[in-house]
């Protein structure tokens, strides 16, 4: 009998398992993959997420694995540039974008060191119920016989195709349709700083250094372009760079060498799922998913994984009932993630609403305000420091925005 079973061992599941095991709880973690192994990812960890790795004693491992530091953002959105960097968060003055074959193995091994029992290549086939309450899982390790394990709570950290979510019929809410699709690969030969640029024709490209002396290079286009893109992905991939910033398209052709095939992903709609119930909880993409354009997936997985571990620990320690603890986790997750969710789904539309266009245009005229905005994106500055009415008044005054052009709220 385990205290907790975690289904899914990547950037949401491993932190939950590790943190609970470090507090003395008996934890089983299963995953259908073996490690190290790759998975679709932006790789980008914001400073707020790196702060969690630092507190857990794992950031140095990520850096020691040869993950390069990023200390400059070259951001533009339909002609509005923000070039600079956020102030340090908890002493962290850079971001890191590790390949998942690097990061996930570090996380799984940290869980093992904490005392988590890990079963790789395990496919969960069903949940075990007792009078409507989840009390365990069933599944197979490889081609072996079906096994059953029981626990006080089961955590689904198994991605947006979550088997746990499906078995408990976790309903979706606050759904916002996905705007785009992504193609990405890895290039050597580039010396680019971080690029994050949206053009005028519903197209975006991004690039940032990762392990093995390579850059992850990606494009996102609106869904109505998907059919044309599929007809000639190689040409259309490069054409996005030519359209958004022709100089980068030329450099990619002349200096870059693609090391792996292009990888497509038509990601699902943005959503929240009901993420708690009798004996179960969801974390990471299993419970909450948003467009990859802001790269907040892994950072949120760390933040919400720690939050969930804290609440489960309270219940297992007898401070409150498990049902109350899981309900509070879901409530706090929704409250804390709402600004990132709103900002991400807005940026993913490829067209800024007038209010946000006015604000970002003003911010782009000031190095200090650019630093503050990039700090908000990094998770270290509260949105009210920019978007509250008195903050907007200071911004407009500092950057000389005429009175008749000032906007103070979303339409």
Automatic annotation (TrEMBL):
SUPFAM superfamilies membership: FAD/NAD(P)-binding domain
Domain FAD-binding: from-to ranges: 2-338
UniProt-listed InterPro entries: FAD-bd (IPR002938), FAD/NAD-bd_sf (IPR036188), Geranylgeranyl_reductase (IPR050407)
Superkingdom of the organism of origin: Bacteria
The name this protein goes by in its record: NAD(P)/FAD-dependent oxidoreductase
Annotated organism of origin: Micromonospora cathayae
């Amino acid at each position: 009998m385990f205290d907790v079973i975690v289904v899914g061992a990547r950037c949401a599941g491993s932190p939950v398992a590790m943190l609970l095991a470090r507090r003395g709880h008996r934890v089983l973690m299963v995953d259908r993959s073996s490690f190290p192994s790759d998975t679709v990812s932006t790789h980008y960890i914001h400073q707020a997420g790196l702060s969690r790795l630092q507190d857990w004693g794992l950031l140095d491992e990520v850096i020691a694995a040869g993950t390069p530091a990023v200390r400059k953002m070259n951001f533009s959105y339909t002609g509005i540039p923000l070039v600079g960097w956020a102030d340090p968060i908890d002493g962290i003055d850079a971001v890191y974008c590790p390949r998942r074959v690097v990061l996930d193995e570090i996380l799984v091994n940290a869980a093992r060191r904490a005392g988590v029992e890990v079963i790789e290549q395990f496919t969960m086939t069903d949940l075990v119920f007792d009078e409507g309450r989840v009390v365990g899982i069933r599944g197979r390790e490889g081609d072996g016989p079906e096994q059953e394990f029981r626990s006080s709570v089961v955590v689904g950290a198994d991605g947006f195709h979550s088997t746990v979510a499906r078995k408990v019929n976790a309903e979706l809410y606050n759904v916002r349709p996905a705007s785009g699709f992504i193609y990405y690969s890895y290039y050597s030969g580039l010396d680019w700083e971080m690029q994050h640029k949206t053009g005028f024709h519903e197209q975006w490209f991004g690039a940032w250094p990762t392990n093995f002396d390579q850059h992850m290079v990606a494009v996102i286009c609106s869904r109505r372009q998907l059919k044309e893109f599929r007809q000639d992905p190689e040409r259309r991939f490069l054409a996005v760079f030519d359209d958004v910033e022709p100089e980068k398209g030329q450099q990619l052709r002349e200096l870059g060498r693609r090391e792996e095939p292009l990888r497509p992903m038509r990601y699902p709609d943005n959503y929240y799922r009901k993420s708690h119930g009798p004996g179960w909880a969801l974390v990471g993409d299993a419970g909450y998913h948003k467009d990859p354009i802001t790269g907040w997936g892994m950072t949120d997985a760390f933040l919400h994984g720690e939050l969930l571990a804290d609440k489960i620990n309270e219940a297992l320690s007898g401070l409150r009932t498990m049902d109350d603890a899981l309900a509070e986790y879901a409530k706090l997750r929704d409250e804390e993630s709402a600004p990132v969710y709103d900002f991400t789904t807005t940026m993913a539309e490829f067209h800024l609403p007038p209010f946000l266009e006015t604000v970002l245009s003003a911010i782009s005229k000031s190095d200090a305000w650019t630093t503050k905005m990039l700090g908000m994106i990094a998770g270290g500055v509260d949105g009210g420091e920019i978007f509250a009415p008195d903050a907007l008044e200071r911004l407009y005054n500092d950057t000389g925005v005429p009175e008749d052009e000032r906007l103070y709220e979303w339409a």
